[in-house]
Amino acid sequence: MAPEIGHHCGLFGIYGDPEAVEKTYLALYSQQHRGQESAGICSSDGQEIDRYAGMGLVTDVFDRRRLEEVRNPIAIGHVRYSTTGSSANVNIQPLLVVYSRGQMALAHNGNLINAKLLRDSYEEAGAIFQTTSDTEVIVHLMAKPDHIKRQDTLGHVLRHLQGAFSLLFLFPDRIIAARDPCGIRPLCLGQTEQGAPVVASETCAFDIIDARYVRDVEPGEIVTLDRKGITSQRFVDPREIQPGHCIFEHVYFANPASLIFSENVHLARLAMGQQLAREAPADADLVIPVPNCARCASMGYARESGIPQGRGFTTSHYAGRSFIMPSQDQRNLAVKMKLTVIKESVRGKRLAVIEDSIVRGTTTRGKMGALRQAGAKEIHVRVASPPIRHPCYYGIDFPDPNELIANQCGGSVEAIREYLEVDSLQYLSLEGMLSCVRFAPDHYCTACFSSKYPIDVDEPVSKFALEPH
Length: 469
Ligand code: SF4
Fold this sequence. Notes:
The two termini are 34 Å apart. It contains 18 helices and 23 strands. By secondary structure, the protein is α+β, with helices and mostly antiparallel strands. It has two domains: 9-244, Glutamine Phosphoribosylpyrophosphate, subunit 1, domain 1; 260-450, 3-Layer(aba) Sandwich (Rossmann fold), CATH 3.40.50.2020. The strands form six sheets. It has a seven-stranded antiparallel beta sheet. Helix 14 (362-373) links the parallel strand 20 and strand 21 (378-383).
C-alpha cells in the first residue's frame, strides 16, 4: 500500500543518562517511519529545558556536533506527521511552554477527538493559541488555575481528553508518560544497560541504544520517571478499561522488529500472510511482496502455500517513505522514484502479489500495470487485511471515505479487481486478521475496516479543524 495514507508520530524519552540527547537522536532516527515532517528534542539539566527542533528528517534537522554539546541527562523527542494541524513550524513537537509552574514540554502521538470543543471553550474565554495542533489544548488544560490547584492535576486533565493519546511531558526535573484508556497508540517502557529508564512508541527505539523492553505503559496509566525511579498511577479505574489497540500498527505502520502491544510485528504479519494463504489460495508460480511493507505477510503466504517467494521490485533507499508526504503529487513521484520492476524475475510468470492493504488503489493499480508491462502472465493480488472503508479519528490520516477504492466500488471486490486490472483479488477476512494477533478481538480497534469505533465520535474532526477560519 500505502503511499496514500499518513501516519502519525513517534515518541522517545530518557531520564538520567549523560548521553540522553544523543540517545534521543538515535531513537528518533529509528522511529523515522512514524513521521517525516518534523523532529524535535527537548532536554533538561534538571533546572531548565532546552529545545532543538525543525522541519524535515531527523538527519536533516539535527547537527550531530551541536547535539553532542548538549549534555543534559533528561530528554524527550518527537517525530511528526500532521494528523491535526498543518505541516508547519509552529506545530513542531515537542511543544515547549512556560506557564505559572515553570517550563513544560509536551510530545503527543494520537488524535484528540474533542480538541475543537476544548479549544473553542478556551478561545471564547480569550485564550490565544500558538499552534493549530490538537496537542496544545492539553497545555491549556494543564495551565488552568482550577486544575493546577488540584492534587491530581494531570489525571484530572487527562480525564478531559477524548481520543487517542500517548503523551510524554518533560518538566525540568522529570518525565511523565501517559496513555489513553483504550491504549490506541503504543507506548512502552524500557531500561538502558546503565539502568536509565526509557520510554518510546516502538521498541526499535530501544534496540538502537541497546536498551531492553520492560513493559507497556498500560491504557489509563501515568508513569513518572524521576530521581526516585519509576512510579505509576492510574487516571482511570482499571476495571473500566476496554482496550482498543490500533490493529493497523500490526498491519502496516510499525517497524517489523518492534514489539507493539507487547507482540512482535513481524510475527503478527507473518501469521496474517499464512492465514491469507489459507483463506485465499492462488494458482501462481511466484509470491512477491509489494515492497516494503508486505514483505513479512508475503513470507507467510509463501510458507503456507508452498509457492516460492521471489522479488518483483527493487526499492531505492534514498527516496523516503512516500506515504508520509502530505500531497498526492509528492507521493506519486516518490513511488516512481522508489520502485523499479525486475523484469527478468516476473516475465512469463503467474504472480501472487501480496499487499498489506489497499487505500485509494491508485498506487496498487500503477504497480500492477508495471508488472504487466514487464511481462507478468497473470497477476493475483492478495491483501493481508480487509477492505478499508471508514475514516480513522485516532491519529491516522486516511483519505476522505469517498476516495477509498472499496467505497468507490460500492464494496464489491470484483469491481476493485476490475479497476486494478488484475486476474484475481482477495482480501484477508476481519476474523482471520484478528486471529493472528495476541489479544482477544475486542481488545483491538478495527474501525477503519469494521466501523466499530472504540470511542464514539459525535462530530467528525478534519485534519485542519483547528486552522483559523
Ligand atoms: Fe487504527 Fe483503523 Fe482504528 Fe484508526 S480506525 S486506530 S487506523 S484500526
